[in-house]
Design a protein that fits this description.
This protein is an alpha+beta fold and about 525 residues long. It has helices at about 1-15, 20-30, 35-55, 55-75, 80-95, 100-115, 130-140, 145-160, 165-180, 190-200, 210-225, 230-250, 250-270, 270-290, 290-310, 310-320, 330-335, 340-355, 360-375, 420-430, 440-445, 450-455, 485-524; strands at about 380-385, 390-400, 405-410, 435, 455-465, 470-475. Strand 2 (about 390-400) and strand 3 form a beta hairpin. Pfam families: GAF (PF01590).
């Protein structure tokens, strides 16, 4: 990059306008290994402008085709990419550079497939374009760059549409051809989509061991290496491949964390459709492991992202193939979704991983109370569980008391600072209880603790597992009215199943430990 910048600056000093486009294109072509892809798109736009001014039609054409590929990778809205591609193809009528026109044609048909305008979702053909004859022309005319880009686009479609066996067959056939051309940005899509194709086919058309050894592990190593120089462009890909790798190896803790990281990094660095893919794969993973609520949230998030990108057939496929996403329809509210919703999604994943990591009951209670109170924006939280003698307070966390958890096991009635009415109501009805719900307002008004403390916001969340009531989680905010927004309540509702599962698991571990200690004591 430093030498490239020196060349650009040197050319500016000499005032050589005719070289600006050529130098700018070459600089942009390889600096994706050290700069963000958004910056590269800007560099290509400048090279395109310089080519128009100087009449350098060859490098102007190259800049146009590379810019469209980068825009596609970033997940720019498909209507925007389609318009930019049509504009560039119109410009190719003047420049008459065959390779760039072929690259742009692939991009146009790729977008058409994504939005549902081709004869089939996985095909590039439409009423005015025949994919097979076009592919043969690329081979016949030795348009190698365009042919490699065509293969990458087909591999991406195969992965996106769940056609794992076809994608793997394509990877076997053309993977080495694309790898031989590593350097230009589009070729760096191969490690991500090649690894995902192999991971999806593992256990079906290829063994897990072969998938890992032949493709996933080498592709992962390549992405990690590139991530060291351009983390904004490649780290989310490395994390997503790492997640699939861990999934195949049965390392659930590592997989869950890597999916979370992949989604977060893809969002943060502007790769919107990679974020959709990460959310989809994470959702399928959690659903397959019985964590359906988290999986449902992620799959709905993926469907929304695909729809917002413009890939409505893919969003529809998710709703059709996965029953718990079927009721989801993208709305203006979802399209205008705030950054807080992104935070809530991450909160669910991170909290779930934290809960699952705790085996000791006391440690779990501390983790649950700290995460839930801070995530919900509460000033205090109380965890009440059903014990043999009845409902009992087992833990309390106050955000303004040094962020400490008080562990106890006291009957609910013996805790004068804990409101029993909303807790019993939530436990009995298995419904969320809030302070501003007219249906419960009269009952809450009879609670002496609420009357004394006068919290501005109140939320009581029932905890249950497989239909069995376990307890309730009480949250309050004494300063802010309306602190528990619908988005936060949804997040807490999703967390509740994981909390219940973790509590039951920790209790089981404790019982086993007690039984082991009793047996050891008896044997002495």
């Amino acid at each position: 990059e430093a030498f490239g910048r020196f060349a650009l600056e040197l050319n500016e000093r000499r005032g050589s306008a005719e070289l600006r486009c050529r130098l700018g294109f070459v600089f942009a072509s390889y600096t994706h290994f050290s700069r963000t892809l958004t910056e590269v798109v800007g560099d290509l736009q400048r090279a395109r402008r310089d080519g128009l001014e100087s009449g350098d039609y060859n490098y102007l054409s190259f800049a146009c085709s590379h810019q469209i590929i980068a825009m596609l990778s970033l997940g720019r809205p498909l209507p925007e990419v389609a318009a930019a591609t049509d504009e560039a193809l119109a410009l190719m009528e003047r420049t008459r550079v065959a390779s760039s026109r072929a690259v742009l044609t692939v991009a146009r048909q790729f977008v058409a497939a994504l939005v549902g305008d081709t004869v089939a979702p996985h095909a590039l053909s439409d009423a005015g374009f025949d994919e097979e004859s076009f592919r043969e022309r690329l081979r016949r005319d030795s348009l190698t760059f365009a042919l490699r880009w065509y293969y990458v686009a087909k591999l991406q479609l195969g992965v996106l549409l769940g056609r794992a066996d076809e994608a793997l067959a394509l990877l076997r056939e053309v993977g080495p051809v694309i790898q031989a051309g590593y350097g230009f940005y589009f070729t760096t899509e191969l490690p991500l989509f090649g690894a995902l194709a192999a991971a999806a086919a593992a256990g079906r058309s290829v063994s897990v061991d072969e998938a890992l050894r032949a493709w996933i592990d080498p592709f992962y190593d390549q992405l990690v290496e590139w991530s060291e120089f351009a983390p904004e462009t490649y780290e989310h890909r490395a994390r997503l491949v790492e997640a699939e790798r861990a999934r195949l190896r049965g390392d659930d803790e590592r997989a869950g964390l890597a999916y979370d990281q992949a989604l977060r990094l893809a969002v943060d660095n502007g790769f919107s459709w990679h974020a959709a893919l990460a959310a989809e794969l994470a959702g399928r993973y959690f659903t397959a492991r019985g964590r359906v609520q988290i999986g449902q949230m992620l799959l709905r998030d993926a469907s929304e992202r695909y729809a917002r990108w413009g890939a409505h057939p893919k969003a529809a496929q998710l709703r059709r193939d996965l029953p718990h996403v079927a009721a989801f329809e993208p709305t203006a509210a979802f399209v205008a979704r705030s950054a807080q919703a992104e935070l809530d999604l991450r909160s669910v994943l991170r909290a779930s991983q934290a809960f699952a990591a705790e085996l000791r009951f006391e440690d779990l209670i501390h983790t649950v109370m700290r995460i839930v109170v801070l995530t919900a924006g509460a000033s205090r939280g109380v965890l009440v569980l059903q014990e043999p003698q009845g409902l009992a307070v087992v833990g309390e966390f106050a955000a303004d008391d040094g962020a400490r958890t008080q562990l106890a096991l006291q009957p609910l009635e013996a805790c004068p600072h804990v409101p029993a009415v909303p807790i019993r109501l939530a436990f009995r009805t298995a419904q969320i209880v809030t302070l501003d719900d007219p249906a419960t307002a009269a009952a809450l008004a009879t609670d002496p603790v609420i009357a004394e403390l006068r919290p501005r916001s109140l939320l009581c969340l029932p905890l249950a597992l497989r239909g069995q009531r376990l307890g309730a989680l009480y949250l309050e905010n004494r300063v802010t009215a309306g602190a528990f927004t619908p988005a936060r309540i949804e997040t807490l509702n999703l967390l509740s199943s994981q909390i219940a599962t973790s509590i039951e698991h920790a209790r089981m571990v404790a019982r086993l430990q007690e039984a082991r200690e009793a047996a050891e004591s008896a044997s002495r």
